[in-house]
Amino acid sequence: xxxxxxxxxDRPAPLPxxxxxxxxxxxxxxxxxxxxxxxLIALLFLLPxxxxxxxxxxxxxxxxxxxxxxxxxxxxxxxxxxxxxxxRDPATLKAIRNTTIWVVVAPLLLTxxxxxxxxxxxxxxxxxxxxxxxxxxxxxxxxxxxxxxxxVYEQDPDRGVLNAVAVGVHDSFDESAGYPTARPKxxxxxxxxxxxxxxxxxxxxxGSTVNLGLVGVPPKDLPEDAEPARAASEATAGGAELRGVxxxxxxxxxxxxxxxxxxxxxxxxxxxxxxxxxDGKAVAETTTAADGSYRFExxxxxxYAVRLPAKNFAEPYGGVEWLGPTLITPAxxxxxxxxxTGFALVLIGAGLSAMPRDVIEAAKIxxxxxxxxxxxxxVPLLAPVLGVVFVxxxxxxxxxxxxxxxxxxxxxxxxxxxxxxxMWLVSFGGGNNQGLGSALGVLLLLLVVPAMILNIRRFRxxxx
Length: 464
What we know:
Elements: H1 30-67, H2 81-86, H3 90-120, H4 127-135, H5 142-152, H6 161-173, E1 183-184, E2 190-192, E3 198-200, E4 212-215, H7 230-234, E5 242-248, E6 272-276, E7 282-287, E8 293-296, E9 305-308, H8 328-353, H9 357-365, H10 370-381, H11 383-398, H12 402-407, H13 419-427, H14 434-463
Parallel strand pairs: 4-5
Antiparallel strand pairs: 1-4, 2-3, 3-9, 5-8, 6-7, 6-9
Helix pairs in contact: 1-14, 3-8, 3-11, 4-8, 9-10, 11-14, 13-14
């Protein structure tokens, strides 16, 4: 039998003006058209920003990744060779090590310092002025800050502020004067021993006078209180006293007799002098006066030698070698802390001011002291802010370049090298290998991206 066709159920005819494809159905409702219009307008406003983002961020990243796969000239494809070469280069390995030190040390110090300062300045009346002063270095470029700290860390105490302070503190505890260029006028009187000390060749007994002439001391190196040595040389010893004078056996302008104290010749003050017995042991020690005179009283009978210890001729304390290979990285981190401490203080201080005070008051009522409140209430409540400051600084220190390039002198620049500086040196600072430099840039990007993602997630959680 032929199949009976199934008749479709009758559909009601659309009402006049009702919804339908021809009359603007659900797919083309006024609400949907308005939404599309809003999206189109938003896209038009975002288009300039997207173009800039693509031209200044996306395109350079893609170009750098592609360039890292070619050789130094950019003509031969080498694949991952630049990435393997990167980890075989000792300079790059040192840069990675220093960058690791930066990432571990600088953000921790900065976050901790900002937290401590924020807590300490919370209850003082001039907290705003204090925060303003600490925040002011943020207005200085890294270039200017690097120049400032290059001078601050100078080895010469007359220029370097830190070494001027270090030398001042050292000299306040060690008052002995140093004459590193001094030497005996007459080699038959004083003999140089081991360690740099000078000892009289002839033995003398108490009651004798031993005058010791030295040369090689420029007039500018004499202390201001140095007096003429003539009067001291004319005094004679007696009894159990052994005395003499140590003077500059040189007359400015010429004249004078060698080995004899002339009227215009000055003594050497603050010079250590020892009386040495027959066994070579120092039995008495004194310091020369302003006219260079010295004396030993109460010596027992016997033969003695007079010795000028080696410390008299040691180089004067010149401070700490801040820009040397050992301290260059900590010194640059110190400059970085000076710049960014204000940022951490202000940000953590804002979080501290937003903390609920009733929790702290309740803790005080329960008998908690300040340390317990800080450790168990303040720090946990500030954890989101501390995390933002820490992660932000991790991102910043991975990109640090200016301070290292400016503060570190040329001979020790490799000892302070970091990834950003190594990337520049390899690409433009003499290496002229932009393939390897691009590989370093990709490595730096891969290290920064996780910290950026973590920071973005923290911001989203804080805003939700």
